[in-house]
Here is the input.
Amino acid sequence: MFEINIGNRSGINTKPIIIKVSKVGCWECVSHKCNDSGYIIVQYKGKGARLHRVLYEKYVSEISAENPFILHRCDNPKCCNPKHLMAGTQADNIKDMVSKNRQAKGLLKHNSKLGPVNIIKIRQLYKEGLTQERISKLFGVNQSRVSRIVNKKTWKHIN
Here is the structure.
């Protein structure tokens, strides 16, 4: 374990940042709590800031408008090891998420109206000859959604 000084000149007396190094080299803060998204929040320059962003600026580079996101190579939101961080765009962040299969699927999506049982039934009804329009009315969704389900454009992870 070690302590990091982020040079807080806000006049606010903040507690020290204590870091524990994991087996894979992640720097995990053990002195501060995570927010709901799993990121460590610290007082910096008079306001709350995500620790990984603060340490990226301190040890790597200023965060630019062209690459305003700080991505974790290790996929650990608690990690603030500058070697595990890289700057990028929102598109880079989304591409990284999809490439590592971390995106919300099925019922985890905020706007999902159907569950796995419904998806299996929709595909079964379609194979039995019901039209997509009829199936859409049975399940209270539009025909284009049924089309995406039966053609496995969505819910690909359900067989």
Q: What stands out?
A: DSSP finds five helices and seven strands in the chain. The chain has two domains: 2-99, 106-150. The mean pLDDT is 86. Strands lie at 2-4, 17-21, 27-29, 41-44, 47-50, 69-72, 85-88.
